[in-house]
Structure formats: structure tokens, C-alpha cells
Design a protein that fits this description.
Length: 127
């Protein structure tokens, strides 16, 4: 299996570490961020990740605002964005699709190994 470069964005340090460990243990290159602002700074200067897992509800900039900014500035257009949220309302799912998210995972109903498996399948799915 290929090694993938991923960004994880979640204000919950515990979840962030848990997901990061899961991906790192499988040999992937993971960078964790606790805010949308930190990620935008990295996207403007660092090599782009193949995929990003973005939490929706965060203090400051929400995951959707982060995604809107990325689209507006054409940051990381080839990066597959996966929304990771406790919110599963249709409006959120629709907004994620509208902003070009490649996937949507509801945190409450997915254990880390499922988040990992789903993410890798989205990354490796032919365009």
C-alpha cells in the first residue's frame, strides 16, 4: 500500500492524537492542526497533502469556512477533503458536497480504524 501525506484538522487534541497515531502506525505522513488558520498557513507554503480530514465545529474558523477559503484561494485543488463531524444533518452533508468534499465521516458512529479505512479508500479511489 502506498504511503500518503495527510493533514488532520480538529480542535480536540485527544481525537487528533488518536487519529494521527492510527495513520502514522500504518506508515503515512501525518501533520495535525488544531485550527483552520494553522492549516491555511501550511497550505500556502508547504508541500500539499493528498488528503485532509477536517472537523466542522471548531472555535474561530469552522471546517466549512476553512474549505470555503481553500476553494476561494484555489489552495490544494487536488487534495481530497474529507469532513469529519459529529453533525450528520442533511444540510451539512449538502454543504460538504457543494464545497467539493470527497467524503463525510460522522465521528460518533466511526471508530478510528473505520475513519482510517474510509479515508484510505477515498484517497485511493480512482478519480
Amino acid at each position: 500500500m502506498a504511503n500518503h501525506r495527510l493533514y488532520l484538522v480538529d480542535d480536540d487534541r485527544f481525537l487528533l492524537d488518536m487519529y494521527a497515531i492510527k495513520f502514522k502506525n500504518a506508515g503515512h505522513d501525518v501533520t495535525a492542526f488544531q485550527s483552520g488558520e494553522e492549516v491555511l498557513a501550511a497550505l500556502r507554503k508547504d508541500p500539499l497533502p493528498e488528503a485532509m480530514l477536517i472537523d466542522v465545529v471548531m472555535p474561530g474558523m469552522t471546517g466549512f469556512e476553512l474549505l470555503e477559503t481553500m476553494r476561494r484561494e484555489n489552495l490544494a485543488p487536488q487534495t481530497k477533503v474529507i469532513i469529519l463531524s459529529n453533525q450528520g444533518q442533511d444540510t451539512d452533508l449538502d454543504k460538504a458536497k457543494e464545497l467539493g468534499a470527497a467524503g463525510y465521516i460522522i465521528k460518533a458512529s466511526a471508530i478510528p480504524s473505520e475513519v482510517y479505512t474510509e479515508t484510505i479508500s477515498i484517497i485511493e479511489k480512482p478519480a
